[in-house]
Amino acid sequence: MNPPKTTPPNNNNATWVQNIPTQDLIKWRRHIHQNPEVSFKEEQTSKYVEDVLKSLSNIEIIKPAKTSVIGVLKGAQPGKTVASRADMDALPLQEETGLPYSSKMKNVSHACGHDAHTAMLLATATTLSKMQDQIKGTVYFIFQHAEEQPPGGALDIVNSGDLKGIDAFFGMHVLPNFPAGHVGILPEGAASTAQDIFNLTIIGKGSHGSMPHLGIDPIVVGAAVVSALQTVVSRNVTPGEMTVVSIGKFQSGDAPNVIADKAELAASIRTTSEETRKMVENRIKTIIDNTTKAYGATYKLEYIPTYPAIQNDAALTTLARNSAATILGKDQIFNAPMMTASEDFAYYKKIAPVGFITLGIGEGAANHNPKFNVDESALQNGVKAQVQIILDYLNN
User: Fold this and answer.
1) pLDDT tens digit string along 279-293?
2) pLDDT value at residue 396
3) Where in the chain are all domains bearing CATH 3.40.630.10?
């Protein structure tokens, strides 16, 4: 196996670059890619990660949850404590890349890049473990389960009590359709969206299609609800503030001449501030309640808040930008737009400030697409950026 092409570091003093395990980085990524496991079932993946960390000899192992692993590297000198996180879970999705190292598991694949995240953090841990005598402070390498499945693995780790005295958290996510190996600096403040979900059952009264006056048509009621919900963003949210209400499910009836007795709807809601998040929830609930009553129907509503928005700390964002530019060069750094997706990395802010960035992986299918793939030449730059950010934070 040939190592990916690399770009010489711009920081001429970064002799540690030669310690990056380039071939292992690709080997680890491909092994994890071939053996994906869905959220909360990452048993073999977490064991694989633990075995690699144990082979480094100077990293302490913590198991904060059944399928999560934390490696702790204590530097030779006292100082601050910083954490870097990678998620390990795959998606319940059949891979269609045709790669020679495609998923061996039917209907399970790493279609979001978590295999790359895990391999890069293993390489970061390996590189820093060889520099223990130069490190001032402590580094936590968090290999997290279940990012894809609410309530999310981050919350388990935060609530475990195993994150001792951490001063800052950093994370990185691979994204297609940005130049491979280029690091994207997400905005200060809201760097992603919060996601909430609702499941709604509208209960009407079934009837023959020729006798609608004897029934209460849940499809008509549901259509009125969907139409009214379009006003939440257009008439209640401050113009320009990113908010989305998307109805992804509307199911009712089985025959053309029968008025069904119920309709099932589901939606995804994205917001960036807690104030707007609560306002949107209240408006949605009010619209559903009033609309169904107006048509004489009843309903059952399950409103599920999931991940909050990542709130990037200004100082950590600036440090990440400067560190990445130091090791890669300013021409490989770009201002990344806010992610409209959601990420449970946001929960680490309960403990300390967070900084989240992205890594371009070249042209290709979007995350969560069966044809999603990673340009492996990008991964070494991801490791360089992670190592430089950690070193600069501890030495600052």
Assistant:
1) 999 999 999 999 999
2) 84
3) 15-191+309-395
Decide: pTM greater than 0.90: yes
CATH number, domain 15-191+309-395? 3.40.630.10
Mean pLDDT, the chain, as a whole number?
Answer: 96
Task: Return binding residues.
Answer: 112, 114, 148, 173, 368
Q: Are 29 and 374 in contact (CB under 8 A)?
A: yes
Distance CA 79, CA 188 (A): 26
Give the architecture-level CATH label for domain 194-305: 2-Layer Sandwich (3.30)
pLDDT for the residue 14 = 84
Cα(248)–Cα(340) distance, rounded to whole angstroms?
16
Other Cβ atoms closer than 10 A to 245: 22
* pLDDT over 90 at 23, yes or no: yes
> How far is CA 248 from each of CA 185, 265, 298, rounded to the nearest angstrom?
31, 8, 21
* DSSP string covering 29-93: HHHHHHS--BTT--HHHHHHHHHHHHTTSS-EEE-SSTT-EEEEEE-SEEEEEEEEEEE--BBS-
Buried b (16+ CB within 10 A) or exposed e, 213-241: eebbbbbbbbebbbebbeebbeeebeeee
All CATH 3.30.70.360 domain ranges in the chain, comma separated = 194-305
187 token code pair: 């905005």
* Total residues belonging to the chain: 396
Tell me how far apart the alpha carbons of residues 211 and 377 are, in angstroms, rounded to a whole number: 65
Q: What is the mean pLDDT of residues 330-353?
A: 97
Give the rounded percent of residues in the chain with a pLDDT score beyond 90.
96
Residues annotated in the binding site for Mn(2+), as ranges? 112, 114, 148, 173, 368
* Angle, in degrees to the nearest 10, between helices 379-395 and 114-129: 50
- pLDDT at residue number 11: 54
Helix (H, G, I), strand (E, B) or coil at 145: coil
Task: Work out the burial of residue 386: count CB atoms within 10 Å of its CB; fewer than 13 is exposed, 13-18 middle, 19 or more buried.
Answer: buried
